[in-house]
Design brief:
The protein has a four-stranded mixed β-sheet with strand order 2-1-3-4, covered by helices on one side. The protein has about 150 residues and is an alpha+beta fold. About 45% of the residues lie in helices and about 15% in strands.
Length: about 150
């Protein structure tokens, strides 16, 4: 029997791979500043290979944001954008966090949502599964484990 954590990890990985495989993109379309199909600003997360604590934290933030806001999100590996720092988070061209710069590459849900609120990004009519009290507790526990490096 799989646990919520295993299911969440598998879902995030499978979803990212499926999205990457199904959408043909040019290099200029994947870098920060890209727009989604309807012209909406894209939230971009760049992670190291293999991901460490900061990158994994940022993926958890991406999951939280996706459960609340109607915003296109792209998750890129550092090798896809070698000229950019990793880990890093951008909303359009706006830098939120970057390795060696702002917040040393580690974003928080509050940091990202503050920007989305200022920009007027719409929310989903109902919150995704992470809004469920039991699921959220397990998700929060997972975040704590990631931030502590598994200790």
């Amino acid at each position: 029997m799989t646990t919520f954590t295993q299911t969440l990890k598998s879902g995030l990985i499978a979803g990212s791979l499926a999205l990457a495989a199904s959408v043909p993109v040019a290099a200029e379309d994947i870098v920060p500043g890209a727009t989604g199909p309807s012209g909406q600003t894209v939230l971009t997360f760049i992670g190291k290979e293999p991901p460490g604590t900061r990158c994994n934290n940022n993926l958890q933030v991406a999951a939280q944001v996706a459960n609340t806001y109607q915003v296109p999100i792209q998750i890129l590996s550092a090798s896809m954008v070698e000229e950019l720092p990793a880990p890093a988070v951008f909303y359009g061209d706006q830098l939120i966090a970057a390795d060696g710069k702002d917040h040393n590459g580690m974003a928080s849900y509050q940091m990202v949502t503050d920007i989305l609120e200022i920009e007027g990004v719409p929310k989903h009519e109902s919150t995704g599964l992470l809004g469920n009290e039991k699921v959220n507790k397990e998700f929060t526990d997972l975040q704590s484990i990631i931030k502590s490096g598994g200790k």
